[in-house]
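lol forgot to send this yesterday, sorry. struct tokens for the thing we talked abt
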């Protein structure tokens, strides 16, 4: 089970054993937390002016050292215009599964369109993903309410969809955590249950989907985002110091997955 690597693999960086240097075009679908990691310790003003943060700098150094050409394009996805900006399990399911095809849905590129442009697709959720309601016993992938039972159905449909693009590598962030004062214990336990389900059951060996364990890095074994990693009281965004630590780990992990994904994998 790939979940066993967790923090060890983040440091060592290993996604497989075969080199495939053609997979160098990466798209990162994100909102504010992802933007913080892309920026890392770079000055926010410089990042706004140039779009070049710690992840970009890591790739420049890596390309220079290993004679590669990795490039990441960041997209605010789903966008505010047209869709509303929500990026929870339902929203990826809604755009990529329910409204799959060769045309954008409400201005958002479907997976058919994204995989045509990029070798590697990275996506994540914003931390309100953890504001989960109690299960009802009537799960539905078509239900946008934040419930574990719905998340599981949506993620299972998303996995089947991603498996239909075996030449594309997918990197999925485990869900970001919330500060203790920004959530309830019940919600934090539900988020942990979702996280554990992702790494223990949903994640599969030998497929084209890899989990970057952001939840473990933020919580370090607790139920909540550690306060010293947050912007401030009540704000569950990662602060600049923590983002500076995360940026090279994230960039290294994505590059490793892109470089070593078995190119002849067979998916059922």
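and heres what i got for the seq, position by position
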């Amino acid at each position: 089970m790939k979940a066993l690597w967790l923090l060890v693999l983040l440091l060592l960086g290993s996604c497989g054993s075969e080199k495939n240097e053609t997979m160098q075009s990466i798209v990162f679908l994100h909102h504010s937390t992802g933007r913080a990691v892309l920026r890392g310790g770079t000055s926010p003003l410089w990042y706004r002016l140039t779009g070049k943060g710690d992840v970009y700098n890591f790739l420049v150094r890596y390309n220079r050292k290993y004679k590669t050409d990795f490039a990441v394009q960041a997209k605010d996805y789903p966008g505010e215009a047209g869709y509303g900006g929500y990026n929870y399990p339902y929203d990826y399911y809604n755009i990529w599964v329910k409204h799959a095809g060769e045309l954008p849905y409400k201005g958002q590129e479907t997976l058919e369109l994204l995989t045509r442009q990029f070798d590697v697709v990275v996506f994540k959720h914003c931390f309100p993903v953890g504001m989960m309601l109690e299960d009802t016993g009537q799960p539905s992938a078509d239900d946008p309410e934040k419930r574990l039972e719905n998340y599981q159905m949506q993620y299972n449909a998303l996995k089947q969809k991603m498996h239909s693009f075996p030449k594309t590598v997918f990197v999925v962030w485990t869900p970001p955590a919330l500060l203790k004062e920004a959530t309830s214990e019940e919600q934090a336990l539900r988020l942990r249950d979702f996280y554990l389900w992702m790494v223990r059951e949903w994640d599969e060996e030998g497929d084209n989907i890899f989990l970057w364990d952001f939840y473990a890095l933020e919580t370090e074994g607790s139920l909540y985002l550690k306060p010293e990693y947050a912007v401030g009281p009540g704000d569950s965004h990662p602060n600049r110091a923590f983002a500076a630590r995360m940026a090279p780990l994230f960039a290294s992990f994505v590059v490793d997955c892109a470089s070593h994904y078995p190119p002849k994998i067979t998916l059922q």
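Residues 1-14, 16-21, 263-268 have pLDDT under 50 and may be disordered. anyway ping me if u want another try
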